[in-house]
Design brief:
Layout: H1 3-6, H2 16-27, H3 35-44, H4 51-59, H5 62-72, H6 86-113, H7 119-142, H8 150-157, H9 160-168, H10 170-176, H11 186-194, H12 198-208, H13 213-221, H14 232-249, H15 262-268, H16 271-279, H17 283-296
Helix pairs in contact: 2-9, 2-12, 3-4, 3-6, 4-6, 5-6, 6-8, 7-8, 7-14, 7-17, 8-13, 8-14, 9-10, 9-12, 12-13, 13-14, 14-15
Bound molecules: fe (ii) ion (2 copies).
One fe (ii) ion binds at residues 159, 182, 198, 222-223.
Length: 298
């Protein structure tokens, strides 16, 4: 029996639309972007806004401020001496990176809020997103893709839908995975068992929460980057980093092997350059990312 025929839709399985609504309704109890973060991001859309105005919007939420400083000093964002104040972090990172930093912090906040049945599922999902984000950042720099922070936010958030499934329909989620790990057939298994998948769920949740279109495209298309009509470069980058992160999680990383389909690679750079950039992704890089990820949601 094939893997896909092993999991058939149950007779009691609600239709795709029903399950999607059920998950989104339950997920609606959780705050994706707190009011202070929303306000700051609105202010930050004006490139001429002052650091003081931007920081004061964030500072209305003490917890958000602490979380942003913690994230700003993580390996994803930090360079040089640690940022000791919000103003300091904003000046160093610049407005565009700060907008991404706020969304990354909100993602960590959501992961802390979601009621996972088992802590190892929360940890596996968050660690996978964080490792993907670190690899996205590395590839962006190595291949000079020109992203200014949106690449790690996208890496961090790409499997948002899996977290929502794990938190809102935990029994159904547990039937599909072991320890929260994503496998090569995840999407097909979800479709067969649930009538929907984490890409659809995550994109719908992202749209309801006003996430930027580029992030929604990544959440929706990271398993089929060749179908992405817009933001194809960002989607391709995350798709490649996602595969690389999974290889490290499975301990099957093959440095000479270039993951991703040829179209995806050609969108980013020449195959040789992509291979060189991937070769520089070391197990130590993935291990450090995993360690830091756990520190941020502890
Ligand atoms: Fe995924
Ligand atoms: Fe993933």
């Amino acid at each position: 029996m094939s893997l896909l025929t092993a999991i058939q839709p149950r007779s009691s399985t609600p239709g795709s639309a029903d399950l999607k609504e059920q998950v989104l309704k339950r997920a609606g109890d959780f705050t994706m972007i707190p009011a202070a973060a929303m306000k700051a991001m609105e202010i930050g859309r004006n490139p001429a806004c002052s650091v003081k105005e931007y920081a004061s919007a964030i500072e209305r939420d003490v917890r958000l401020t602490a979380d942003i400083l913690s994230m700003a000093n993580s390996s994803l964002y930090a360079s040089g001496a640690p940022a000791t104040s919000l103003n300091d972090a904003i000046r160093r990172l610049g407005l565009r990176r700060c907008q991404g930093l706020i969304l990354s912090t909100c993602t960590a906040g959501l992961m802390k809020q979601l009621p996972f049945q088992q802590s190892q599922v929360r940890e596996a999902l968050w660690r996978h997103g964080y490792t993907t984000a670190v690899i996205c950042r590395h590839l962006n720099q190595s291949l000079q893709l020109g992203f200014t922070g949106e690449e790690f936010t996208a890496g961090l958030m790409h499997d948002l839908g899996r977290s929502l499934l794990a938190a809102t329909v935990p029994d159904r989620f547990a039937e599909l995975v072991t320890d929260g790990e994503e496998g090569p057939h995840t999407l097909q298994l979800e479709q067969a068992a649930l009538g929907t998948d984490h890409c659809e769920i995550g994109a719908a949740f992202g749209a309801r929460n006003g996430l930027p279109a580029a992030l929604i495209a990544v959440i929706q298309q990271h398993h089929c980057p060749d179908h992405a009509r817009e933001h194809q470069k960002l989607v391709s980058l995350v798709a490649m980093a996602d595969q690389m992160a999974k290889r490290f999680e499975d301990c099957t990383a093959l440095p000479m092997d270039v993951p991703g389909d040829p179209l995806c690679i050609s969108i980013l750079a020449e195959r040789e350059r992509v291979r060189d950039a991937l070769q520089a992704v070391t197990p130590a890089m993935a291990e450090n990312a995993a360690t830091e990820a756990l520190r941020l949601i502890a």
